[in-house]
Automatic annotation (TrEMBL):
UniProt-recorded name of the protein: THD domain-containing protein
A molecular function GO annotation: tumor necrosis factor receptor binding
Family: Belongs to the tumor necrosis factor family.
Organism ancestry: Eukaryota, Metazoa, Chordata, Craniata, Vertebrata
Ranges of residues in domain THD: 33-146
GO terms (BP aspect): immune response
One cellular component term from this protein's GO annotations in UniProt: membrane
């Protein structure tokens, strides 16, 4: 289990402490597991990453962002989906955001602002057969707490 807390998001107009995580794909090209980026140098968080799924510990309004860069060997169309509460007993599965791609698509991006409650989980889902870049600057996703509710 990886736990991460607040860190400074450098690209904001005013630096502030946020509950945030930034995920990159593992270095193993045959897997689709996610790990916290070294950019996330934190402790005691409201977000916990385990088995490529994030568990929300503090309910509130979150900003999410995703970028996936594909290898040119794609043979099919499909979608990349941000899902809440997959395989969570007593929780309703929610599709938070989704982007369709085709054989010609090189990179997809998506971003959304969503309400997440304590105990909910978030996961990035796409077909296991798709080959994508494992470069940290090309394939990543993350979320950060904008406001506690």
């Amino acid at each position: 289990m990886i736990t991460c807390s607040t860190y400074e998001i450098i690209f904001h107009f005013h630096k502030q402490r946020l509950n945030a995580m930034y995920f990159v794909c593992s270095l193993e090209p045959t897997t689709q597991t996610w790990m916290a980026s070294e950019s996330c140098f934190c402790q005691n968080t409201s977000l916990i990453l385990q088995d490529s799924t994030v568990t929300i510990k503090v309910g509130g309004i979150y900003q999410t962002y995703v970028q996936v860069t594909f290898h040119e060997q794609k043979t099919e169309a499909g979608s990349v989906t941000l899902i809440a509460n997959e395989n969570r007993e007593g929780k309703t599965i929610r599709k938070l955001s989704e982007v369709q791609y085709n054989k010609e698509t090189k990179t997809i991006t998506m971003s959304t602002v969503i309400h997440l409650e304590s105990g909910e989980t978030v996961k990035l889902d796409f077909p296991k057969s798709i080959l994508f870049s494992h470069e940290e600057s090309q394939t990543y996703w993350g979320l950060y707490l904008l406001k506690k509710i």
